[in-house]
Amino acid sequence: MCDTFIIPPSLTESGHRIFAKNSDREPNEAQHWVYMPPAMRDSNRVQTSFISVDHPAATYGMWLSKPFQLWGAEMGINEHGLAIGNEAVFTRVPMEKKDKGLTGMDMIRLALERCRSAKQALEQICYYVEAFGQDACGGYMNRKFYYHNSFIIADPVEAYVLETAGNHWIYRKPAGFYAISNRLTIGKEWDGISKDAISYARERKWHRQGPFDFAEAYTEPVMSWLARARERRQACQVNVQVISSQRKVTVADVMDMLRYHAQADGFRPCNGGMNNVCLHATGLFAPSQTTGSMVAELNPDHAAPVWATGSAAPCLSLFKPFFTGSPCTDKRLFKAPGAMHDDAYWWKWESWHREALQNYPAAKSLWRAKALPLEQQWFSNAQRNHPSNIGKTDPGKLTREAMDQSLTVLQEMREALRTAGRKRSGWMYRYYWNTWNRKAGIPHSFS
Hints:
Blueprint: E1 2-7, E2 17-25, E3 31-36, E4 39-40, E5 45-47, E6 52-54, E7 58-59, E8 62-67, E9 75-78, E10 83-89, H1 104-114, H2 118-132, E11 148-154, E12 159-165, E13 168-172, E14 178-180, E15 192-193, H3 197-203, H4 214-218, H5 221-226, H6 229-244, H7 251-258, E16 289-298, E17 306-308, E18 320-322, H8 345-356, H9 360-384, H10 395-418, H11 427-440
Antiparallel strand pairs: 1-2, 1-14, 2-16, 3-8, 4-7, 5-6, 8-9, 9-10, 10-11, 11-12, 12-13, 13-15, 16-17, 17-18
């Protein structure tokens, strides 16, 4: 499950649109935060997760947050300031489950590689949905996880919400704040709809009379309810309303929104549920955790940093600054993670996360004391160098320093947490996490 939202320029301190997303995936599905430089492929065809498609050989440079084993990406931003994120949505349209289509993640990467604007990306993804469909497994170890997709597509000038069901699509151009959280949201008001979407629903008696409501007609209710999509979407809406009623929204505010827990006081991950924007896996009814997070201020001059964790659990990790104009591609810091616990950046932070789950109050206190001040310092440094002064320093240096400093504070927190002891949780929760740890080769047990 995921949460993606946009905040319009009228509500932000900078006067620029802000795009944000938490990517929620299976606990051991490491997510790789990586820069893909502009490139020229050998042919005008590309192999995606399951199928190959025609595609221009020339590609734009982009930052992607992608599951390590997949071609596509959960979210990303390219050199033209185009940002896209997707969500799983559950619809009444059946799937053959033969992996002969595109994942939503494939569509994100394809669009970022070739599109300069939100409008162009919208048209491109609509084409992919109609031409290839979405019959493609989106799971990792869960090979039965198939879903359709919704998207937020944004650039410095405009933004679109695109929702799909099978080969059908609908979109609207929101004027204000908009969030999507694993449920169809576009009802009777839209700006564009695929030609057969209404007739397809009417033929199956999903819509009988009155103005056509896409979400009402196509939503599969059980999975949409289990995902607690309404509650997470409402939490995002309420948070931005509270902030904007007092002042303009900042990037730092948005980072806090991605760290939201429904039980703010006394929250413990073992009691977490699907109603949390910062998601923690607990078992059957909450099988996913937030494995990557991103916040992007869509500035027309592209000088603003993109903020990403490159790690799971934003409530226990840090947003670092990255720049599309002067990317840091230090291989030491951006090594791709693997299926097993290794020395990649994501897995280093995940080791801390797994230990923190056994004494979350102590871990959170350490994070506030040692890590959060670092993030605030990076934010201040980036603001001083953005946008008019950006040429006076090396943006890549800010990134390298932040990455190195984050690893230093990570080690300090892990050492301090080990002296704080553990808080015992239920046996089912311990069994659940010990199973994931064994599968990943993490030398740490829940006791």
